[in-house]
Fold:
Amino acid sequence: MRLQHDLMKKHEDQMLKQVEELLCQKNHLRDHLEKIKRKSEEEEENFLQEISRFNSEFSLQGNREMVFESQTNTEILDLEKEVESLNREMELMSQKNARINSLQDVKRMLQLELQGLEDIRKDLDRQLSEAEAVTESLRAESLFVSQKPLTDSTCLR
Structure:
């Protein structure tokens, strides 16, 4: 009984540790994503500055519409890559969350089983106490009956 309780406690501790690790990993991934976004924005800004400089040097200002279209296409491609990356990350987190949910279901089942076993143990303890009380009562009665012939005046004659 105690061993099973210890195992349940150890299992619960492991699950909590795993949840903590997953949350830490999630935060790390979020930080990493923010760094990537910042770097991407910086690279995009540098790229746009270089394009502007190039256009200025080669008098391509008249072709602004084409440059704008190119920038828009580049930005769309970057955003599509970011969406794809975020979708993969969300899928991974969803899979990990499903595993945690299944472990929590197992934990709940084990807790219910433990509660049932504890109820059985309490019932057995109560029955044992009753049996011990009856045994003690019968011993006292037996002692009383065995001493009665020695103290009873009708039995002494």
Remarks:
- Residues 103 and 109 are 10 Å apart (CA to CA).
